[in-house]
Design brief:
This protein is mainly β. The chain has 3 domains: 142 residues, Sandwich (Immunoglobulin-like); 167 residues, Immunoglobulin-like (Sandwich); 204 residues, Cupredoxins -  blue copper proteins (Immunoglobulin-like, Sandwich). 9% of the residues lie in helices and 39% in strands. The chain is built from 5 helices and 33 strands. It has a 6-stranded mixed β-sheet, with no helix packed on it. The chain has a 6-stranded mixed β-sheet with strand order 21-20-26-31-28-29, with no helix packed on it. It has a 6-stranded mixed β-sheet with strand order 23-25-33-32-27-30. The two termini are 41 Å apart. It holds the Pfam family Cu-oxidase.
């Protein structure tokens, strides 16, 4: 029997190698540098990629292998992370501070990863030193393979729409505010595709349908997105096809991505319409404005911009979020329908209650997870784990439920077993909205509600067609519950998508491994990729 098992394992290893080897390889060469730009008339050092802001579109298809050689021409260390790309069994390529050593100024490094079993709309951005405040972001598309039907008619064209708050101050100055214990001020404006109001334009032809892939790439502000005199049909979010519902506007929280279909009116006269992204839940109304032009019309939109919901209308936002459901009949990256994965019938292995909070630690502002504010060690966690270094991180300092101890600092890792099925409740006691992102995974958003979660609220869960996504919001004084199967080996970041809170410690890592796995260097490549040959060494491993 053991010979049959060995032969089967050998076959599977060869099969995996064959699939990866047979997949198309896309090669890119990106130079990251600073360029002086002034979207709102104030000069600022902006991070550009190949002199582009936003950066180049990463246009891919399911299972493509992507090789991106990044040259760092900044004066600071640099890493790029790929928001929503799951890096199947390959957290070595995740591009956050505890999976990778940084690319130092004047050096280059090649990311190599596969768009394994994914479709959808995503984006990339710099993950270190609050550099996202300087730009450096761009859109990611993962198209269906030709053999997998898309569950809607092919649109005339696709547009990437990157919306986000913007600060006129350089990112170093914003970082200094946080380092001194302060909060970021309100943003100075909203950009659409890196442009100030009325500068981003989109061409429509009468009667044609267009797919807009919209991502909130900002630092911390929820935005409401809408188009004058048009409705949007939601079809996809972060790799999940959704039930096709129509919306006059969409609340898009920091780090979230949506695909919508918009059908142009059947009109023969040229005309223009406003595309608007307006701030939500802050004491200042800011608007990013784009222009949709029909048939090459060069004029400006008539009438006023379309109104959005009231600034602090959380009920509107909550009801909209609860209306977004999984399309059970649609295939995505694989031929079988999305609904063939019956998450609602899987027994929960472990329940975590994750509470975000704010604290003063050592006389400075910090943000916490169950009372612990993350501090970065000198050696990335992934490397420290692989080389079995001691005293780099601690497991167990974040408990499965919030504790009443005094808040403190720590390099926190939660150990979890491969194929465990987790039930996580994100509890937000604060008066501001929170957004969480999980690297390596999509999360079934089974419920949300006001107040403090308790077991009786599980009766309200959607155990049938909850949407699956990588970034979820938690409204003020509320909770959001998710479920996730841990089917992706590695060291994975779970963080606040609010860049200020992330920078000030609101994150932790989940180490997903087999029971009894004591030596990470001996894990089979069937389960997790080996350390890349070009892996940068730093910290305690610099001399290797």
């Amino acid at each position: 029997m053991r010979y049959i098992t060995a032969a089967l394992l050998c076959y599977l290893s060869l099969f995996v190698a064959f699939v990866n080897g047979d997949s198309p390889h896309l090669n890119f060469d990106w130079t990251v540098s600073l360029s002086q730009r002034a979207p709102f008339g104030v000069d600022k050092q902006v991070i550009v990629i190949n002199d582009q802001f936003p950066g180049p579109l990463l246009n891919t298809t399911t299972n493509d292998v992507v090789n991106i050689n990044i040259h760092n021409n900044l004066t600071e260390p640099f890493l790029m992370t790929w928001n929503g790309v799951q890096m199947r069994k390959n957290s070595w390529q995740d591009g956050v501070q505890e999976t990778n050593c940084p690319i130092l100024p004047g050096q280059n490094w090649t990311y190599s990863f596969q768009m394994k079993d994914q479709i959808g709309s995503f984006f990339y951005f710099p993950s270190l030193l609050l550099q996202k405040a300087a730009g450096g972001y761009g859109a990611i598309r993962i198209h269906n393979r030709a053999v997998i039907a898309v569950p809607f008619p092919r649109p005339q064209e696709e547009y990437d729409v990157l919306i986000g708050d913007w600060y006129n101050a350089d990112h170093q100055d914003l970082r200094a505010i946080l380092d001194m214990g302060g909060n970021l001020p309100l943003p100075d404006g909203i950009l659409i595709n890196g442009l100030a109001p009325n500068q981003a334009t989109f061409d429509f032809e009468p009667g044609s349908t267009y797919r807009l892939r919209i991502s909130n790439v900002g630092l911390k502000t929820t935005l409401n997105f809408r188009i004058q005199d048009h409705v949007m049909q939601l079809v996809e979010t972060e790799g999940s096809y959704t039930k096709k519902e129509y919306y006059p506007s969409l609340d898009i929280h920091v780090g979230q991505s949506y695909s919508v279909l918009v059908t142009a009116k059947n009109q023969t006269d040229g005309k223009a319409y406003y595309m608007v992204a307006t701030s939500r839940f802050i004491p200042l109304e800011l608007s990013g404005v784009g222009v949709i032009r029909y048939s090459g019309f060069q004029g400006h939109p008539l009438d006023n911009m379309p109104p959005g919901p009231s600034m602090y209308d959380y009920a509107f936002s909550t009801e909209q979020a609860q209306s977004i459901r999984w399309d059970l009949a649609a295939g995505a990256a694989r031929p079988n329908p999305q609904g063939s994965f019956h998450y609602g019938s899987i027994n929960v292995s472990r329940t975590l209650i994750i509470e975000n909070d704010v604290a003063e630690i050592g006389g400075k502002l910090r943000y916490t997870v169950n009372g612990v504010s993350f501090v970065h060690p000198d050696t990335p966690l992934k490397l420290a784990d692989y080389f079995m270094l001691s005293d780099v991180f601690e497991t167990g300092i974040i408990s499965d439920t919030p504790q009443k101890d005094l808040p403190g600092l720590g390099t926190s890792v939660i150990d979890a077993q491969y194929h465990d099925f987790l039930h996580i409740i994100f509890q937000n006691p604060l008066p501001s909205l929170q957004t969480w992102h999980a690297d390596g995974y999509n999360l079934f958003v089974v419920g949300m509600g006001l107040g403090e979660w308790n077991e009786t609220t599980m009766k309200t869960y959607n155990m049938f067609d909850a949407v699956s996504r990588s970034t979820v919001q938690v409204y003020p004084g509320s909770w959001t519950a998710i479920m996730v199967e841990l089917d992706n080996h590695g060291m994975w970041n779970l963080r606040s998508q609010d860049a200020e809170k992330w920078y000030l410690g609101q994150e932790f890592y989940i180490r997903v491994k087999e029971v009894g796995q004591n030596d990470p260097s001996k894990v089979s490549p069937r389960d997790e990729a080996h350390i890349p040959e070009n892996a940068i060494k730093c910290g305690r491993l610099t001399s290797l």
